[in-house]
Amino acid sequence: MNPKGDTISQENMVADVFFLHPTTYTGDKKGQNQWNGPMDDNALNEKTNSGTIKFQASAFNHAGRVFAPRYRQAHLNAYFTKDTASARAAFDLAYQDIKSSFEYYLKNENHGRPFILASHSQGTTHAIRLINEFINSKPLKNKLVAAYLIGMPVRKDQFTGVFPCSDSLDTSCFVSWRTFKKGHEYKFDRHPEKILVTNPINWKTDDTYAPKSANKGTLLFDFNKIYNQHIDAQVHESILWANKPKFKGSIFLRTKNYHPADINFYYFNIRENASLRVAQFIKNRNQ
Fold first, then answer.
1. In which domain, by residue range, is 102 found?
2. 161 by DSSP, 3-state: which?
3. In a domain, 109, yes or no
4. Distance of alpha carbon 280 from its chain centroid, rounded?
């Protein structure tokens, strides 16, 4: 699955990608009013496949074989409800599915191969737990190319054995960002200086501005329409700033939170970087 018919065979890939998709369980109709999404909800599965798997997971398919498990995801309201006990149980159930999938992958598919862990939003909520349980300061870290923990706040000291990536070729490390309109001041992080923000154009963590001329390609609503040099990026405190995108009807875009586009804004920069990190990982391992 690639934009504009771009084809690549995953048969001979030397690495894997374990991708955890964000929340697509958001409805209030019958069948979507429980805390966890049913696995046999065809409409929900199609929403996941045609949305996040197509537009997000595919960004990593030049770097390795992509494994993107379905799971009984927690409903979007689990992030906002005052019923914290039910929300916690919903996230725990979702994580158990992901844990089981990851264990199956390690036993039946990995075979010692290096892998990327990639996630967005709720996927990142679970990826943090996965790293702490399986990778952090454990032998499996030696197979981790990098973790792309996108769309949720991740502390710089979130893990004791996996550290923020220092540049575009660093490995066995993690990157993270949340995208907002340039100029927006985000006031909800108590200690913004502790949150990791990686610039997905230049892969730096300081506030060096990356112009849109350095953006290798953006995807918005049409999977086969690539916007070249369309979005810039700059780290600002605990968030990533980006200019407002321009597309037909964008004059009506009022939101300052570009969360759904965290990956799509920088799709081809991510694709290139994931492949480069795999190549660097293999090079390091062979030296």
1. 12-286
2. coil
3. yes
4. 21
| Alpha carbon distance 147, 165 (integer Å) | 9
Express each pLDDT in 152-202 by its tens digit.
Answer: 999 999 999 999 999 999 999 999 999 999 999 999 998 999 999 999 999
Residue 3 lies in a domain: no
Tell whether 170 is covered by a domain. Answer: yes
Secondary structure of 162-220 as H, E, C letters = CEECCCCCCCCEEECCCEEECCCCCCCCCCHHHECCCCCCCCCCCCCCECHHHCCCEEC
Q: Please state whether the predicted TM-score (pTM) of the whole model is above 0.70.
A: yes
Q: Is 248 helix (H, G, I), strand (E, B) or coil?
A: coil
* Residue numbers in the chain where pLDDT is lower than 70: 1, 4-7, 29-32, 249-252
Token pair recorded at residue 244: 């407002």
pLDDT in tens, 241-272: 999 998 776 665 778 999 999 999 999 999 99
Cα distance between residue 129 and residue 51, in whole Å: 24
The answer to whether residue 69 is domain-embedded is: yes
Given this model, what pLDDT does residue 221 score? 86
Work out the burial of residue 272: count CB atoms within 10 Å of its CB; fewer than 13 is exposed, 13-18 middle, 19 or more buried.
middle
Q: Count the domains in the chain.
A: 1
